[in-house]
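Below sits our specimen:

——
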Amino acid sequence: MEYTIEKKNGGWCRLSCSFSSDEVLSAWKNAAVPFGLFFRMAGFRPGKVPLEVVERRFYPQISDAVTDMLVDRAVTAVCERDRLTPVTCFEYQGENARRGRAFAFALSFCILEQGEIPDPESIHVQIQEARADPVQEELFLRELLIREGRKISVTEGRPQNGDLVEVEVTGRMDGRTVPGMNTGICRMRLMPVRTGEKVPDLDPVVRSLSIGETGTGCTRCPDNYPDPSMRGRQIELVVTLRGVEREELPVVTDELARKLGFHDATALRRSAHVRALEMDRVHRLSEGRRMLRETIERQYGVDVPEALVNACRREVMLRSRRYLQRQFGSPDSLKTTLELMRQEAGEKAERKARARMILLAWAEKRGLRLGGDEYDRVLAGRAARRNMDVASYRLSLARSGELFELRAGMLEEKALDELMKKVFRP
């Protein structure tokens, strides 16, 4: 194998590789073997069909497999030898490998080069001390007590605090259904509103209904709604109450506590308290993690490689398209909404790229690496969803370079978790 590396402005790196005809032929024979093992042909025992026959029958598939194999081999060897770390997908240029012929291709991708990066350890994230929410504590206690209690269906009257209700919600604006604002039939528990807390828009509507009745309320379209033109506008909520379930709970006693596996009633209540405390702690840490990422994204003095911004823009738009395709029935509506989102996607992509660059640089400085089992578990999960074995799935991503983008994303999240431990200030 021969190769050349050309680094360009904007963070781009171009890798050009070539394989001799002998190297291609060797890879071709290896790639053809699995096809022959399962090919059946009259007059031949399983696995004994001549290789030439197998090749003629599966030529396009073998050609694809050889191309992926050689690209994977080349990228792995070059990145290890020249210490390159691709952080985006590849732009592949070249045709498929052909039996007994020389094979050449080129890949363009983004690498992170050494440069002046602000030290994110100087950031301080203030998080209040965790406290057990009494309402959440009561909810956890309910979960324990219902094991010895019972649930009854309510057929008359209005829902009360603690009831499990089945509702169907449809969001409408200007007489049309709003994509993403339709729940179908869902279950929710009515909880008491804490002092100083805003009453959920859905809550008073549900409480005013009897089973089978429909009522209306309103809510404000959230600021992160995919279609920017609708943000902040009023949405009418059409709510139908389908069912109410009420829990009859036993009185908390030492005897009941022992029946549930606790020493006494105090230990039972203490368990619910600890769970509520832990839940609040996790919530506060999650909020602190979000604040840390937003602070890193606002490091505006950092120059972000154009190639990385483009990759993040593609990532943002792909995620938005997948969501919108599930919500919009009309292709025209989908197209219009995506056009409205393009400018915003560019701004979001630049912030995302800046955070990724800073976090990956920090991970490199600290010698932070992904464990093999971490990466393998993710690959195995993705392969299983596609009914593929891990080796075949990994090879199928060779030309696209998705493996490197996946690894970079995972390392970015790991770096954020490790950084959080250093900048967290209680």
